[in-house]
Amino acid sequence: MTLTEAITKRLKDVMHEKGFTAYKLHKEGGIAKSTISQVLNGTRKGIEITTLYEMLDTMQMGLGEFFSDPLFALVTD
C-alpha cells in the first residue's frame, strides 16, 4: 500500500467515524470541494500536510492520532 492510499483510506474512515461527508468537510472547513474530491477518489498524487491538517482540524483530530493508526505500518512505498 502506498502512503497516498493509506492516507485516503484513513481519511475516509475518520470521516465515517465522525459523521462527515465531503460536503460537510467543505462547508465547515472551508476546504475546496475539488481538493476533497481528488483526495477521496485517489486522483490526487499526494496531499499537502497543511491540507490534511485543515481537514483533520475540522473533524477535531490531530495529526498524531491520525498517523498512529496501524494502517500506516502497511505502507511500503
Structure overview:
The protein is mainly α and 77 residues long. It is 62% helix and 0% strand. It contains 5 helices and no strands. It has helices at residues 3-18, 22-29, 33-41, 49-58, 63-67. The mean pLDDT is 93.
Strand content: under 5%
**Rounded average pLDDT:** 93
Low-confidence blocks of residues: none
Q: Strand tally, please? A: 0
Q: In terms of structural class, how would the helical and strand content be classed?
A: mainly alpha
Query: What order do the helices and strands follow?
Result: HHHHH
Number of helices: 5
* Major sheet summary line: none
Q: What is the alpha-carbon Rg in Å? A: 12 Å
> What characteristic shape results from the CA principal axes?
globular
Relative helix content: 55-70%
Determine the N-to-C terminus distance.
Answer: 7 Å
